[in-house]
Amino acid sequence: MKKLLLDGHQIYKKTPWLNWKELLYGFKHGLIDEKGVSEYACEALTEMSLQEAIELASLLPQEDYLATNLLQSLADKDLSAETDTAKPWIFLLLSFLFEHQENYEDPFEIVEEIYADFDYPEEIAPLVRYMPPPEGVEGSEERLFENWKTALSVYKDFFEQQNRFSQ
């Protein structure tokens, strides 16, 4: 995939509820870099933050190499309920791409790459050009954009049902 590298500020703005395991997933899959992880940690700091989170949030650029171990340590200590760690990243990538589609020659090509990279999740299939539309529905780019908006809404509803937005 043409890597969409998200920054920590963007990620926090959309998903301030990410847990450390989910952040580690994005980092290990190249969706966020050391700088982004540090930015996210900085945005997420509270009086209750663990020492590693404080260290992660205050890394200098030349200390980026420390991010991996700090993030791994935080993920190991994370007692959050097990979740599908990929799901927030699908939401983040699709949201970012939808909001910045004018910056890409063919945003649907990138959607298709996301679809493949995340092992063909069913909820993305309606956004993929080569997938047949439902019986009796005319396939068009407008329909794909409508499906994209719907998919983002479904993801958001899913996270709200988990009470993730009210954390």
Order of helices and strands: HHHHHHHH
How many distinct folded domains?
2
Compute the separation of the termini in Å: 32 Å
**Computed CA radius of gyration, to the nearest angstrom:** 17 Å
Multimerization status? single chain
Report the total helices.
8
Derived from helix and strand composition plus strand pairing, the structural class reads mainly alpha
Tell how many strands the DSSP assignment holds: 0
Structure explained in plain terms:
This protein has eight helices and no strands. The chain is mainly α. The chain folds into two domains: 70 residues, no CATH class; 75 residues, no CATH class. α2 packs antiparallel against α5 and α3 crosses α4. The longest helix has 21 residues. It is elongated. The two termini are 32 Å apart.
Element layout with pairings:
Elements: H1 8-14, H2 20-28, H3 34-44, H4 51-57, H5 67-77, H6 87-99, H7 107-117, H8 141-161
Helix pairs in contact: 1-3, 2-5, 3-4, 4-5, 6-7, 6-8
List keywords for this structure.
8 helices, mainly alpha
Describe this structure in a few short sentences.
With 167 residues, the chain is an all-alpha fold.
